[in-house]
Amino acid sequence: MRDAIEDLEAQNVSGYILDLRSNPGGLLEASVEIARMWVENGRIVSTVNRKGKSDLRWARSRALTDKPLVVLVDGGSASASEILSGALQDNQRALIVGTQTFGKGLVQSVRPLGDGSGLAVTIAKYLTPSGRDINKLGIAPDVEIALTDDQKQQLRRDLTLIGTKADPQYARALEVLNQEIAKGRENRAESIDF
After folding, report:
1. Which of 101, 103, 160, 175 measures 20 to 30 Å from 141, CA to CA?
2. DSSP classification of residue 38
3. pTM beyond 0.85
4. In this model, does residue 188 exceed pLDDT 90?
5. In angstroms, rounded to a whole number, what is the distance separating the alpha carbons of residues 49 and 149?
6. Which residues are part of the catalytic machinery?
């Protein structure tokens, strides 16, 4: 992610779309580190164990860019991708486009068993920076756009259409991003007038 952002910054892009659709998540620490690449200041996530003890993760004033960001999510966006999208949304760093995310707000640890198998044990839950517990609720998009069954089938038949203007959710995300870029330009123009 760092390499991609730095490469695109060198190309002087105007904004970003981060596609987290159907992203089932990954490691908590990875989502925190990725959020820190986008968020300059503020809380990223907190985890709360069953005894009520909380562990907070913060941005470190090392964001790689402050350019407009839109995040695409859907019902397949879960766990670490929800931590990231919740952190970006709550810190007003990105607009979220798509449909409600899955709602997996639990931190799990895999404990090895003697026969070589493992047991996933829930050890904590996480909360977004504003304190939202998204378990079973998910992250609600700022701009909702669902795909019809026909649109889903078309994208499944031709995966090269995903992330193009033929992908209705991506096309809407691009519209939202262009609106945010235009707002930024208007704001800069207004500040120059003074």
Report:
1. 160
2. H
3. yes
4. no
5. 40
6. 79, 90, 104
